[in-house]
C-alpha cells in the first residue's frame, strides 16, 4: 500500500462532490435540462402561444391580439375533414403494421438462430438508413400506372383485382399512386420497422419457461399465443403503435407525393405557415396531433399496456 | 404398472451426450429423486418426461403408453419450474386456474378448485394478488398449486427449492413430502442437494455425465455406494485405491470408508479382530458444531477425512494439534467395496 499523499485539488473536488450528492446531481442534470427545457418544451409552448395571435386575411399579416378564433376554426368542416382523414390513416397504418410486424418480430425473437437474427436486424433497419424522401419518391414510381406493381399484378393476372380494389370508395382512386390505398401502403412501408423492433424486444424478454409452463398445463400452441404471448406482448405493440401513430399524424411528405389530393395535418401546417404565412392557424393545427396522441396514450395506459414496464 | 419408464434413452446435442443410454423405471406413487451435479443430465431427463425435449434415441413410457413424440400439452404430467414460471400478467387465482381454463373447465368450478389448491399450499386469500407482489416462498407455493390443481398422475419438480433460504427450504421439504403421501401422486424431484434427496425420497437416482451411476433407497445409497462417484457425492467419503486398498482389503478394487466410522488415537491400542489401522499426520482441524473434522495425510500421501461427534467440553481440551502423528482405525464391516462405472 502507498501512504496517503496530500490531497491534490482534483481529489479535493472529487471528495467534495462525493459528500454533496445533490449538488453533484444538479451539476450533471443542469445542461441537459436546459437543453430540453428551452429547445423542446420552450419552443413548443411559444409555438402554441402563437395559436392565439390574430391573422388578418386582408393584409396577410399577424398581429399579437389574442383570440380563440384559430382553435374554433379547426372545427370548420374543411379543417375537421383534415383531422378525420389523418386520424383514420394513422389508425389504419398502426393496425396493419402491428399485424405485419408481430409474426416477423416473433420469428426474430424466438425461432431463428443468432445468425439469422442478425440478418433480420439488418433487413429491418437497412431501409431506415436510406433517405426517407428518396424512398417515398421511389414508391411513387412503383405505384404509377406503368410501374412495377402494375406490371407484377399483370404477370400474375391480377389486374382485375387491382382495378376492383381501386373502385372501392374511400380506398380507391384513379391509379394506385393517387389512391388512399397507395398512400396507406407507403406509410406502412416506412413505419413498419418502428413497430417490429419494440415487439421483438418484448418477445425476446419472455422467459422460455413461461411458455413451457403454458404448454405443460395443457395449453395448445394457439391457446398459449392467445392467453400468454399476446397479453405479454402488449407493451411492445403499444410502444410500436406510439411511433407509427404519431409519425403518421405528423407526416407532411407522403400525403403530398402519394395519394389523392387533400391535406393531411402535417401538410396543412406546412401550407399554412409556408405558402399562406398564417402562422397562428399553423400553430393551432399543431395542437391537434399533440391532443390526439395524449388521448391515445391515456387509452393505451388504461388498457394496462404499461403495467408490465 | 410403472409411472415412468425410460428404455435406453439418449439425448445428444451435437457431440455432447446430455443423457446417455439411461434406463429407469419409476413406480406409481413413488417419491423419486434425480440427484447429480449441474450438467449431469438430471434436468434433461425431467424435460424429456415433460415433453420439452425429445429423445435422440430410446423410448419413454408414461403410465404404460409411449410418450416419445407427444407434445407437452398432451401429457398427463405437470411441472414445477425452477424459476416458478408464473404468468406475470395474471392474478394468482388465474395462474392456478390456467390449466383448468385451457381444458375447458367452467368458470365456477375452476375458480373453486383453484381456491382449494391455494388452501392446500396455505395461500388462501392471496388469489387477487399479482405474482410480483409475492415473496419467493409464496411464488413457489403458487407454482405448486398451479401444477397440482390439474390432478396430474406425475408431478415433476425441477430444483423447486433452490432459490429459498435454508429454513424455508427445510420447511418446504417436509411439506412436500407430506403432500406427496397425502395425494399419492408420483413425484419426480430433481436436485443437486444430496441431503434434500436423502431426506425426502423413496428412491434416488444418482446422475453423473449423462449416465445413472446408481438407483437405490437413500439408506442403501449412503451405506452401500456402488461407485467412487456416488460414495463421494452422497455424503462425504474417503475413497482409497491401489496399494492402500490392496493392503487393507486384499483386493485391487477401491473401497470407501465414511469419516464418522473412523476413530483416532495418538498411541498404539490393541486392535480388535476385524479392525484395520493406518498411520498418518494431522493436517487440519475444523470445528463444525455437532462434530469436529480432522484431515490426515497418510504415509503413502493419500488424505483421510475423519469426523468425530463432539461430546463434552472437557474432552475438547486435549484436541490433537496439526503436525501430530496419529493412528486411524476402523472396522472392516464399515468398508464398502466399489467398482468403477463402465466407460461410456
From TrEMBL, chain B:
<dbReference type="InterPro" id="IPR003439">
    <property type="entry name" value="ABC_transporter-like_ATP-bd"/>
</dbReference>
<dbReference type="InterPro" id="IPR050093">
    <property type="entry name" value="ABC_SmlMolc_Importer"/>
</dbReference>
<keyword id="KW-0813">Transport</keyword>
<keyword id="KW-0547">Nucleotide-binding</keyword>
<keyword id="KW-0067">ATP-binding</keyword>
<dbReference type="Pfam" id="PF08402">
    <property type="entry name" value="TOBE_2"/>
</dbReference>
<protein>
    <submittedName>
        <fullName>Polyamine ABC transporter ATP-binding protein</fullName>
    </submittedName>
</protein>
<dbReference type="InterPro" id="IPR027417">
    <property type="entry name" value="P-loop_NTPase"/>
</dbReference>
<feature type="domain" description="ABC transporter">
    <location>
        <begin position="4"/>
        <end position="234"/>
    </location>
</feature>
<dbReference type="InterPro" id="IPR013611">
    <property type="entry name" value="Transp-assoc_OB_typ2"/>
</dbReference>
<dbReference type="InterPro" id="IPR003593">
    <property type="entry name" value="AAA+_ATPase"/>
</dbReference>
<dbReference type="GO" id="GO:0005524">
    <property type="term" value="F:ATP binding"/>
</dbReference>
<dbReference type="Pfam" id="PF00005">
    <property type="entry name" value="ABC_tran"/>
</dbReference>
<dbReference type="InterPro" id="IPR017871">
    <property type="entry name" value="ABC_transporter-like_CS"/>
</dbReference>
<dbReference type="InterPro" id="IPR008995">
    <property type="entry name" value="Mo/tungstate-bd_C_term_dom"/>
</dbReference>
Amino acid at each position: 500500500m502507498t501512504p496517503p499523499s496530500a490531497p491534490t485539488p482534483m481529489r479535493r473536488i472529487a471528495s467534495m462532490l462525493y459528500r454533496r450528492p445533490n449538488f453533484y446531481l444538479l451539476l450533471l442534470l443542469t445542461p441537459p435540462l436546459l437543453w430540453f427545457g428551452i429547445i423542446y418544451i420552450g419552443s413548443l409552448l411559444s409555438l402554441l402561444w402563437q395559436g392565439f395571435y390574430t391573422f388578418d386575411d386582408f393584409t396577410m399579416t399577424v398581429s399579437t391580439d389574442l383570440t380563440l378564433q384559430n382553435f374554433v376554426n379547426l372545427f370548420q368542416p374543411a379543417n375537421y375533414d383534415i383531422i378525420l382523414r389523418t386520424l383514420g390513416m394513422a389508425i389504419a397504418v398502426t393496425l396493419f403494421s402491428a399485424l405485419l410486424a408481430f409474426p416477423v418480430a416473433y420469428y426474430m425473437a424466438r425461432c431463428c438462430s443468432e445468425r439469422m437474427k442478425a440478418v433480420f436486424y439488418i433487413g429491418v433497419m437497412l431501409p431506415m438508413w436510406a433517405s426517407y424522401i428518396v424512398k417515398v419518391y421511389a414508391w411513387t414510381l412503383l405505384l404509377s400506372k406503368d410501374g412495377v406493381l402494375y406490371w407484377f399484378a399483370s404477370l400474375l393476372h391480377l389486374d382485375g383485382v387491382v382495378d376492383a380494389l381501386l373502385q372501392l370508395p374511400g380506398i380507391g382512386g384513379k391509379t394506385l399512386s393517387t389512391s388512399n390505398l397507395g398512400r396507406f401502403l407507403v406509410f406502412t412501408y416506412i413505419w413498419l420497422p418502428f413497430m417490429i423492433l419494440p415487439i421483438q424486444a418484448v418477445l425476446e424478454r419472455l422467459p422460455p419457461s413461461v411458455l413451457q409452463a403454458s404448454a405443460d398445463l395443457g395449453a395448445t400452441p394457439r391457446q398459449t399465443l392467445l392467453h400468454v404471448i399476446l397479453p405479454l406482448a402488449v407493451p411492445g405493440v403499444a410502444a410500436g403503435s406510439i411511433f407509427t401513430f404519431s409519425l403518421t399524424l405528423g407526416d407532411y411528405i407522403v400525403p403530398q407525393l402519394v395519394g389523392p389530393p387533400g391535406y393531411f395535418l402535417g401538410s396543412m401546417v406546412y401550407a399554412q405557415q409556408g405558402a399562406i404565412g398564417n402562422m397562428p392557424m399553423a400553430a393551432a393545427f399543431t395542437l391537434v396531433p399533440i391532443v390526439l396522441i395524449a388521448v391515445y396514450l391515456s387509452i393505451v395506459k388504461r388498457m394496462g399496456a404499461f403495467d408490465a414496464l | 404398472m410403472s409411472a415412468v419408464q425410460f428404455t435406453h434413452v439418449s439425448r445428444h446435442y451435437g457431440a455432447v451426450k446430455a443423457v446417455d443410454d439411461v434406463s429407469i423405471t419409476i413406480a406409481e406413487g413413488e417419491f423419486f429423486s434425480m440427484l447429480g451435479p449441474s450438467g449431469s443430465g438430471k434436468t434433461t431427463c425431467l424435460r424429456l418426461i415433460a415433453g420439452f425435449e425429445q429423445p435422440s434415441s430410446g423410448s419413454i413410457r408414461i403410465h404404460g403408453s409411449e410418450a416419445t413424440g407427444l407434445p407437452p400439452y398432451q401429457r398427463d404430467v405437470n411441472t414445477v419450474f425452477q424459476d416458478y414460471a408464473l404468468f406475470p400478467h395474471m392474478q394468482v387465482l388465474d395462474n392456478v386456474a390456467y390449466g383448468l381454463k385451457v381444458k375447458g373447465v367452467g368458470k365456477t368450478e375452476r375458480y373453486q378448485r383453484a381456491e382449494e389448491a391455494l388452501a392446500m399450499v396455505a395461500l388462501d386469500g392471496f388469489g387477487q394478488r399479482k405474482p410480483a407482489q409475492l415473496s419467493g416462498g409464496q411464488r413457489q407455493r403458487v407454482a405448486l398449486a398451479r401444477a397440482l390443481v390439474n390432478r396430474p398422475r406425475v408431478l415433476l419438480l425441477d430444483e423447486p427449492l433452490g432459490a429459498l433460504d435454508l429454513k424455508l427450504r427445510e420447511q418446504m421439504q417436509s411439506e412436500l413430502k407430506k403432500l406427496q403421501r397425502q395425494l399419492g401422486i408420483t413425484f419426480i424431484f430433481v436436485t443437486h442437494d444430496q441431503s434434500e434427496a436423502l431426506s425426502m425420497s423413496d428412491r434416488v437416482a444418482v446422475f453423473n455425465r449423462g449416465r445413472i451411476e446408481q438407483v437405490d433407497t437413500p439408506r442403501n445409497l449412503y451405506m452401500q455406494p456402488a461407485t467412487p462417484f456416488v460414495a463421494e457425492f452422497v455424503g462425504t467419503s474417503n475413497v482409497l485405491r491401489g496399494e492402500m486398498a490392496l493392503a487393507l482389503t486384499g483386493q485391487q478394487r477401491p473401497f470407501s470408508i465414511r469419516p464418522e466410522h473412523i476413530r483416532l488415537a495418538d498411541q498404539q491400542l490393541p486392535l480388535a479382530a476385524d479392525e484395520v489401522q493406518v498411520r498418518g499426520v494431522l493436517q487440519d482441524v475444523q470445528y463444525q458444531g455437532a462434530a469436529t473434522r480432522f484431515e490426515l495425510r497418510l504415509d503413502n500421501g493419500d488424505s483421510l477425512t475423519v469426523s468425530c461427534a463432539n461430546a463434552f467440553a472437557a474432552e475438547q481440551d486435549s484436541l490433537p494439534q496439526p503436525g501430530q502423528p496419529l493412528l486411524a482405525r476402523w472396522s472392516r464391516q464399515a468398508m464398502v467395496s466399489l467398482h468403477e462405472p463402465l466407460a461410456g
